[in-house]
Amino acid sequence: MSLLTCKDFLSELSEYLDETTDPDIRRRVEVHVSECPNCFVVFDTTKKTLQIYKGMEPQPIPQDVHSRLMAALEKRRSRPA
Amino acid sequence: MLPPTQTEAFDELPLVERARSGDDSAFTDLVTRYERKIFRLAKHITQNEEDAEDVLQETFLKAYSHLGEFQGNSKFYTWIVRIAVNESLMKLRKRKTDRTVSLDESIDTGEETVVREIAVWEDSPEDRYSQEELRGILEKAIDSLRPAFRTVFVLRDVEELSTEETAVALDLSVPAVKSRLLRARLQLREKLTRFFRRKGDDVFAYL
Ligand SMILES: [Zn+2]
């Protein structure tokens, strides 16, 4: 099993986090982060970055924006196609 | 304020079918379900509240008029995201004439993937800020990415489309989506490090 360089690790990082890497590469990524403190931090903080963004709920839409959208749709509906 | 929408584990198909057969209340249900996400997406791409509202309206008006053309082989949500992305990019191009608006694949060559700052984060860095502060930090970080990167990031990691769906929505190849996503993620990681790093630790660089 050949070792990954830090650069190799970076290029695999995204797919590793998406869990789309094949098992062999997966293992090599894991070996690399267990031995390379810098890459471990990059791995860990990138993972957290994604977790934080995925947990971000969209804000409620302002009531006036919603009302104008509904009015625009209503207008379209009342117009014969 | 309207109640939150839930997009996960929601079977939109019966609603879409009813809307297609002319049931306007079913279409309204689809609108209320997705308007927040479409508005957020449009704000992220256009970075302008007014443009985002135009995009929101255009998207649902187009969806309404073209419902008959919707094939049902993709999700309705993915279909309207695609309309919203196109409308947003048109707005963006109208406002800015510089080339950075281009989503052209030539952007993927010549720029290296680099990591400049490495620092350990707090265990729960988001707890250091109020919900509102945190939202501000996260959104500002996205908005500081160039359009080609932030569009991919928003579709993949905020709206949680698949790589393939993102590629279709942006008219990009799958490898282009992947390479931009990696760089967008690394750039955001670095921007957030300034807010989330453990106090007192050194910042070091490599690569
Ligand atoms: Zn390394």
Summarize the entry for a quick read.
The complex is a heterodimer of chains A (81) and B (207). Chain A is mainly α and 81 residues long. Chain A has helices at residues 6-17, 23-35, 37-54, 63-77.
Kindly describe this structure:
The complex is a heterodimer of chains A (81) and B (207). Chain A contains four helices and no strands. Chain A is elongated, with a radius of gyration of 23 Å. Chain A has one domain (6-78). With 81 residues, chain A is mainly α. Chain B is mainly alpha-helical. Chain B has two domains: 7-95, Rna Polymerase Sigma Factor, Chain: A; 125-198, Winged helix-like DNA-binding domain superfamily/Winged helix DNA-binding domain (Arc Repressor Mutant, subunit A, Orthogonal Bundle), CATH 1.10.10.10. Chain B contains eight helices and no strands. In chain B, helix 1 (13-20) crosses helix 2 and helix 7 packs across helix 8. Mean pLDDT of chain B is 85; it is low at 1-8. Chain A binds chain B through residues 6-7, 10-11, 13-15, 17-18, 38, 41-42, 44-46, 48-50, 52-54, 56-61, 63, 65-66, 68-70, 72-73, 76-77, 81, and chain B through 1-2, 4-5, 24, 27-28, 31-32, 35-37, 39-40, 53, 56-57, 60-61, 64-65, 113, 115, 118-121, 125-126, 134-135, 138, 157-158, 160, 163, 178, 181-182, 185-186, 188-189, 192-193, 196, 204, 206-207. Bound molecules: zinc ion. Zinc ion binds at residues 6, 9, 32, 36, 38-39 of chain A.
Topology:
The complex is a heterodimer of chains A (about 80) and B (about 210).
Chain A: H1 6-17, H2 23-35, H3 37-54, H4 63-77
Chain B: H1 13-20, H2 24-46, H3 49-65, H4 76-95, H5 131-143, H6 147-158, H7 163-170, H8 174-196
Helix pairs in contact in B: 1-2, 2-3, 2-4, 3-4, 4-7, 5-8, 6-8, 7-8
